[in-house]
């Protein structure tokens, strides 16, 4: 089976998870790891399984990932899974899988099987801390707790969980 793990990453969080998924996929399949900007819709059509990774930006998939999903070509029998990273430990009142709606729609449109969404917390780039803290209205103490919780993420446990997700998708 041919597997493509592709991702958009600005801070390295999504890239780290992409590499973990790729390592799992490469154990038993022909697998490639590529940045999203290095993959054309025609090229993506040549794989049996697509793993597509995105950070969440303002509670949405990154714009380049949405564009990629919209440009995918029909491919009956192909499978797709999504993986996302986010700075918050959870989004209150929302299931993380809700962020996968664009991937689900792309699968439905193109005759592909949607295999699920893996998510994990990542570390928010330092340059964004003040803006995000103010946007979500946290005081200094609450923000310090948030920073402590995201420091070091994604970690080895997150990578192992990503590999377990990949194994489930590929079995």
Automatic annotation (TrEMBL):
UniProt-listed Gene3D superfamilies: 3.40.50.360
Family matches, as InterPro entries: Flavodoxin/NO_synth, Flavoprotein-like_sf
Domain Flavodoxin-like: 3-170
GO molecular function, one term: FMN binding
Protein name according to UniProt: Flavodoxin-like domain-containing protein
Originating species: Desulfatibacillum aliphaticivorans
């Amino acid at each position: 089976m041919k597997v493509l793990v592709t991702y958009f990453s600005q801070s390295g969080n999504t890239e780290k998870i992409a590499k973990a998924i790729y390592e799992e996929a490469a154990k038993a399949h022909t697998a490639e790891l590529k940045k999203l900007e290095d993959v054309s819709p025609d090229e993506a059509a040549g794989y049996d399984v697509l793993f597509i990774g995105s950070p969440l930006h303002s509670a949405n998939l990154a714009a380049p990932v949405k564009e990629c999903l919209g440009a995918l070509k029909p491919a009956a029998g192909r499978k797709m899974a999504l993986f996302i990273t986010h700075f918050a430990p959870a989004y209150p009142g929302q299931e993380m899988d809700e962020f996968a709606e664009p991937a689900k729609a792309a699968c439905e449109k193109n005759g592909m099987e949607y295999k699920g969404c893996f998510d994990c917390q990542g570390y928010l780039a330092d340059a964004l801390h003040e803006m995000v803290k103010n946007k979500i209205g946290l005081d200094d103490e609450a923000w310090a707790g948030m920073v402590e919780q995201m420091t070091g993420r994604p970690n080895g446990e997150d990578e192992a969980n990503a590999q377990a997700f990949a194994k489930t998708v590929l079995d």
